[in-house]
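Field guide to reading this record: the first block holds the primary sequence, the second block holds the structure written as discrete tokens, and the final block holds curator observations. Each block starts with its own label. This record concerns Porin, catalogued under organism Colwellia hornerae.

BLOCK 1 — SEQUENCE
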Amino acid sequence: MKLSYSILAAALLSTLSVSASAGDVDIYGKANVTVQSSDDGTGSYSEIKSNASRIGFKGGQDLGNGLEVIFKAEFQVDLDGDSDKGNSITDRNQYIGLKGNFGEVLLGINDTVLKQSQGKVDLFSDLNGDIKQLWKGENRMSDTVTYKSPKVNGFQLGVTYIAEDALDGQDGTSMALFYGDKALKKSKIYAAIAVDSEVKGYDAARLTVQGKLAGFTLGAIVHRQEKVSDGSDVEGFLFSAKYGFDKITVKGQVQTANYDGGDHRSGMTVGADYALAKSTKLFAFYTSFDIDNEADQDYLAAGIEYKF
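BLOCK 2 — STRUCTURE
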């Protein structure tokens, strides 16, 4: 579904006018834009790039007896003006559901629990170094039902069911077991194991772990994917690390993807953030992809991010 700016503005105004008796509604978002030199393998060029900038509405209402209705409607907004007319606002996670002692059930468009299992290990998510550049499994799917159990001793089960939505379609399932807090504020370690079955033509499995050691935040992912149609598989790993001091955070990560036929692909990204405020940062990064059977890729960028 594509929305015009006027429709989004109308939705914003109607959301602002919601009375307190109808439940709480929060407006949130992120503006992230970079100036960068990009080389996709055919030569370098300069560009201004919007990196998954977004606006969203979320909220809910207490229904009594420990039951709550919750919703989210999030849209990606193109701030660089590069998209075709009418395509500058696109769907992100959008759902409605119920939450209670049983956990929560959500219906709509949503990230699979395998995608969610990465937590905050990918330090360059939504940028050129995002792990989706080398791996399958970073899926936001329509027609989903997602269930998450209550946390028990730090553990939580998550399941995403993707309806086939057509006579010749194929149901898909994503399952994950989470441990700890992905923000590492309520636990010292975050970990997850997740599997996809028949999701966008692939089966996949991931093991993720992240924790803090001597001031560093260290993370790792082991990943495997198999194409359902021909059985070809890819195995890889990711390692990330960051260290903060004063207003500066330096970070880096490496990622690999080893294909059945011997094709080896790897990515490396290093960068730094400078906090102007809790909501705003300046940042820079350099990403390089080494690809055996294709041209290498390189990206050098500096940008600004504002969260609200």
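BLOCK 3 — OBSERVATIONS
The chain has a mean pLDDT of 92.
The first helix runs from residue 5 to 16.
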